Amino acid sequence: MKFLIITKDYPPMPSPSGLIASYLACALRKRGHSVDVITRDNGLSASEYFSKDNNINIVKSTFWDRLCIKVHSGNTDSILKTVYFILMFIRKLYLAFNIAKFPNSEPSVTRRIVKLFKKKLLKNEYDYVIGFFRPYSSLISAIEIKNRSNKTKGIAYFLDLVEPKDCPKLMPQSLFKKLIARGDRYVFQNNTTIILPLSAKGILNPLYKEYAEKIIYCEFPTFILDLHLQPDLVMQASGSIVMLFAGTLNSGFRNPLKLLHLINGVAAKLSEKAIILKFFGGGDCNDIINNYEHCSNLRIEQHGLVSKDIVNREMGKANFLINITNSYNAIVPSKIFELFASCKPIINVVNKDDDGSEKYFTRYPLCFTAKWNTDAEFDLVVESLYKFLIDNEKKRANIEQVKKIYHKCTPDYVVDQIIIRSIEAIKDEKNK
Questions:
Q1: What per-residue confidence (pLDDT) applies to 10?
Q2: What is the CATH number of domain 225-405?
Q3: Following CA atoms 245, 251, 254, 256 in sequence, which dihedral angle do they give, to the nearest 10 degrees?
Q4: Which of 13, 75, 126, 355 could be cross-linked to 325 through a Cys-Cys bond (beta carbons 3.0 to 4.6 Å apart)?
Q5: pLDDT value at position 187?
Q6: Does residue 314 contact residue 291 with C-beta atoms inside 8 Å?
């Protein structure tokens, strides 16, 4: 079969949607299917990377996209930040005057994607067009392309769900909910298959019940052993312990303050070894991290937004990998399955007691979960983590055991679900 994938990001951009899109593309091609991709040039050596794959088609990123990447990667240039806030204000005004198109806040991007399709890919008769959310423009673009052929079916892949926190400040919550419901209904009506994260299964959305026959609930397909199960590239010198966090930090929903407080406490006990704490990714927490840069026995490195290849290499060097849970979010972060695929010891810092991802960490055989509410509890956590570091610095989880636990989180499993659903849909059409 022929597949067309519409996604905002694609490697080397280390975003969850881009990585998952590339993993599924590889899994589909491995099965003999043809896969084309339409994505945006993200500025991370993209031209060099994309030139290796003739099936990847590029829509030039907007100035806003490129500016966001620079600012969120930790760029502290005051002029850039000023331009960023001015443009953000203008975008909010634009949204206010174009409210009828919401939640597709990028209609110009949709037009450019469709234009590129007409120019380069119109002759292709695709069996499926897969649109990845976020953003909404990818879903709408996929629908417009799908509707150009009676043969083509649509798949809407939701890696995330819209939450109340996503409501623009200038928009009433009631209006926001109505517009999102209208947008979701349009997407559900115009696609053959809807893929939702497994964590959405318990959410009471009337659409999920109404379109139950179209919905596939899947784990995030980011568990890929061969990314990390290579020999450690560089064994760290015995005088230090390397810890690594890769992902977006946010002062509102993924704040590193608890992690920093914890690691500083442990570093004070490790008189025989220093701790090197590495951060890879964007966010707005540079100032919070900077406050801990002069702690004794603790060295902090901030590397900003880099390619996934670099992150994978650095994960191979690290002694411990770190997860910071969201302060509010019912959706399980996709990146946690990459941590499990490393088979390395993991430190999981919990920011809220009812975190939806905790059940996955409890199943992992080499994990330390850190959560506390009082000073006395904190002291116990520091002592326990100290012991965990000493006991597990050079340990690895059993590969076969980890594979068995997370086999439903692989791209192969999710692709199998898509193919099965496709076969069932063809049978249903023939029976009609």
A1: 87
A2: 3.40.50.2000
A3: 40
A4: 355
A5: 96
A6: no
Q: For residue 321, which amino acid is it?
A: L
Below-70 pLDDT ranges, the chain: 14, 42-54, 72-76, 226-238, 328-331, 423, 425-432
**Whole-number Å distance between alpha carbons of 34 and 29:** 6
Question: pLDDT averaged over the chain?
Answer: 85
Domain extents for the chain? 2-221+410-431, 225-405
Q: DSSP secondary structure string, 345-382?
A: -EEEE-SSTT-TTHHHHHHSTTEEEE--SSHHHHHHHH
Determine whether domain 2-221+410-431 maps to CATH 3.30.1330.10. no
- Identify whether the C-beta of residue 71 lies closer than 8 Å to the C-beta of residue 43: no
Question: Residue 246 forms beta bridges with which residues?
Answer: 280
CA distances from 155 to 130, 423, 430 (A): 5, 14, 20
Q: What is the pLDDT of residues 89-143, one digit of tens each?
A: 887 777 777 777 888 888 888 999 999 999 999 999 999 999 999 889 999 999 9
Computed on alpha carbons and rounded to an integer, the radius of gyration of the chain in Å comes to 22
SS3 232: coil
Supply the pLDDT for residue 54: 63
DSSP code of residue 285: -
The identity of residue 85, as a single letter, is F
**Residue 156's pLDDT is what?**
96
Please tell me the distance from the alpha carbon of residue 117 to that of residue 190, in angstroms, as a whole number.
19
State the Cα angle at 11 between 50 and 164, rounded to 5°: 135
Angle at which helix 173-189 crosses helix 136-146, to 10 degrees, equals 30
Q: Do domains 2-221+410-431 and 225-405 have the same CATH topology?
A: yes
Residues 152, 161: contact at Cβ < 8 Å? no
Closest CA to 219 of 345, 78, 333, 350: 333
Q: Which amino acid is at 345?
A: P
- 54, two tokens: 């003739």
**Residues 367-374: contacts with CB under 8 Å, at least 24 apart:** 370/258, 370/262
